[in-house]
């Protein structure tokens, strides 16, 4: 599993982005989801996938469960974050005809849908309220009664997201490595009343949706979209750029030295 090669749509200077399929890894993931959420409608998979078929019917708790399972298996791939969705938009397969959950949820400032979960997550991240939307990634998920709840993990990240205060567009800023409101970029839809705990997913209409309150909704257009080792790729690109720069500098130094010797020969007749 550690040597798993994700199949997807690589583009220049981008990691591979692809769908989780029902191969050896996909079979292990579905089996573990079904073991953890036995008899939980909407999370346990009722679908029967064929070998190498794309795994469908993504929703928020399934996405959170799958992301943690991948970490547990030591797979060098993870669910796309909202930042990675925007940053690598052009590399995402089936982007116009599918939706895919990110590894994150959004907590808004006002009480609202999924309030019990909202209070639970606020407690997990050590807050009792928030004045700005918060994007929380890396949450665990576990069975609770005939449903689910979010849990603490060692991988939780919390980011303030002022760009989710209203509908608009967002772009990835490579200098700050954050999303920010912009006149161009990916459309983002938010709840007008800024309330509750909401899912955060990419829709097939070219939109990042941050207002979904039915966390269990899933259909055949849902995809589990992974990204493979963006940090490793960036490091490799940086190493290659450094190597090319060193080679270029060495060639320039060699040509300069030859030029100086030629000039000396022209002036003195000596090498």
Task: Please characterize this protein's 3D structure.
There is one protein chain. By secondary structure, the protein is α+β, with helices and mostly antiparallel strands. It has one domain (16-228). It has 5 helices and 14 strands. The strands form 3 sheets. Strands 3, 4, 7, 8, 9, 10, 11, 12 and 13 form a 9-stranded mixed sheet that branches. A hairpin with a 2-residue loop joins β5 (140-144) and β6. α1 (24-36) packs across α2. It is elongated. The termini are far apart. Mean pLDDT is 89; it is low at 233-241.
Compact description:
The protein has 271 residues and is of the alpha+beta class. It is built from 5 helices and 14 strands.
Observed structural traits:
nine-stranded mixed sheet, 5 helices, 271 residues
Order of helices and strands: EHHEHEHEEEEEEEEEEEH
* Alpha plus pi helix count: 5
**Count of strand segments:** 14
- Portion of residues in helices? 25-40%
Outline the low-pLDDT stretches: 233-241
Give a short account of the largest sheet: 9 strands, mixed
Give the termini distance in whole angstroms: 62 Å
From the alpha carbons, calculate the radius of gyration and give it in angstroms: 24 Å
> Domains counted in the coordinates: how many?
1
Strand content: 15-25%
Structural class: alpha+beta
> Which overall shape is indicated by the principal axes computed on the Cα atoms?
elongated
Mean pLDDT, to the nearest integer, reads 89
